[in-house]
Amino acid sequence: MSTAASFIEVSNSALPLPRRSPRSSGTWYDFAVARRAGFRVISCDAGRADTSYPKTNVDATPSISRTRSDAVRFETVGEWNTEEPNIVTIVEILNLIYRRSEENDEHRAVDDVFDFMDDNLLAGNFRACDETLRLAQPSKLLPSVVVSFLMVTRRAKPYLPSRKDFIDAAVNDLALKRGKEQAEKLLGKYR
Amino acid sequence: MATSYRRIVTKNLSEVDVATAVQDGPHAAIVYRSAEGPLKILHLAWHRDLREGDFASQHERYICVRPNLERDDSVALAGYCRRIFKGSARHNGIPYNLRYDLETRFDPDTGDLILPSEASGLNCATFVVQVFRSSGNPILDGTSWPPPRPKDIERQRLLVDFMRSNPDSRHRNPEQADIMSREIGCPRIRPEEVAGACLEDDLPARFDKCEANGHFLAGLLAAKSERLVLREFA
């Protein structure tokens, strides 16, 4: 972990938060992401005369985002997780998910995907999530497990550049097994 | 694409089904398979009271409808429901409200509820709607709902009164009742209409289909409740 930004501005744009920038902009979702990544909100100047959410409210509900989607500013202190992802852990979890897929233990494989990705997203480890998607081989996964990867990362896609390649590979692989139309029908909506 | 009554399931439930029942009033829930195999039921019972339980002991009260989803979507959605319940321990629960707010959703990454500033919570029906919608599989089009029907306003008033003066202090919350009272008169998605949406082949379903199917399911529920009562007295 390295100490990073001390100020975040959240505006109406949809730009993802740069990792080391002291100022950045994005939607309320970016704000939620920033908080998960370790930023602590110390004051909140909710613009547009919206005074209904003072800082106490924002801090009092750590996992429920109560922000306007436009022009909200937050002064923050904290750390942005810039650690290198642990490749060994990622490979281990992927191997576990492959094995469960091979054994048709799909519910547990699905839970492994949700748990691993969720824990990392909560910790702000977007690089670990992105690396997981980069390394994952859709051909070794059950379609339901592929869907789980896509479902869990749907909102975080601006932070996960490898997601696009993952979905393309998954569609191609499924097209071989079930035909292109079926592959697009199942996976296309998660793009 | 049409209404398909074969989607009403009484046994061999799928990975994810939408259930509706009449308890103290109409209710909606999601039934899904646990990782261990048995079916679970997830529902917003009341203010900050999200519950998961075994479905086997409650199945007689419910009518289940299987939404028109690919099996792979359903399996992933079951995992998503498990995640939402796990994630609910991280926050202070879901506030209960009357209004359906399009901006309210569950964060697919974490299962956390995201409430925009104007939103006040969810209710049993909109909870089910938002779980499906947040996963990328919307079952109904909430924008097609009309202003409240007379019975909706009656029900909304009843719910506000219940929140304000519930005999059980654990379920009484006058502050939330104040918030809810300002929402009386908003469009109301009825629980049976949520299940009714799942009778449609073509999702997300629009209001007219959901309403007609909801009436049909409410009739079935009434008959089912009557049978249960008769059996209890037999």
General description of the model:
The complex is a heterodimer of chains A (191) and B (234). By secondary structure, chain A is an alpha+beta fold. Chain A is built from eight helices and four strands. In chain A, strands 1, 2, 3 and 4 form a four-stranded antiparallel β-sheet that branches. Chain A starts with a strand and ends with a helix. Chain B is of the alpha+beta class. Chain B is built from six helices and eight strands; from the N terminus they run E-E-E-E-E-E-H-E-E-H-H-H-H-H. Chain B has a six-stranded antiparallel β-sheet with strand order 1-6-2-3-4-5. In chain B, helix 2 runs parallel beside helix 5, helix 3 packs antiparallel against helix 4 and helix 5 packs across helix 6. Chain B is globular and about 45 Å long. The termini of chain B are far apart. In chain B, 48% of the residues are buried. The mean pLDDT of chain B is 88. The chains are: A alpha+beta (191), B alpha+beta (234). Chains A and B meet through helix 1, helix 4 and helix 6 of A and helix 1 and strand 8 of B.
User: What sort of overall outline of chain A do the alpha carbons produce when their principal axes are compared?
Assistant: globular
Query: Which pair of protein chains has the largest interface, and what are the residue counts?
Result: A-B, 47 and 35 residues
Extract low-pLDDT stretches of chain A. Answer: 1-30, 37-80
Largest sheet of chain B: 6 strands, antiparallel
Uncertain segments of chain B: none
State Rg of chain B: 17 Å
- What is the helical fraction of chain A, as a range of percent? 40-55%
| N-to-C order of helices and strands of chain A | EEHEHEHHHHHH
Major β-sheet of chain A, in short? 4 strands, antiparallel
Structural class of chain B: alpha+beta
Strand order of the largest sheet of chain B: 1-6-2-3-4-5
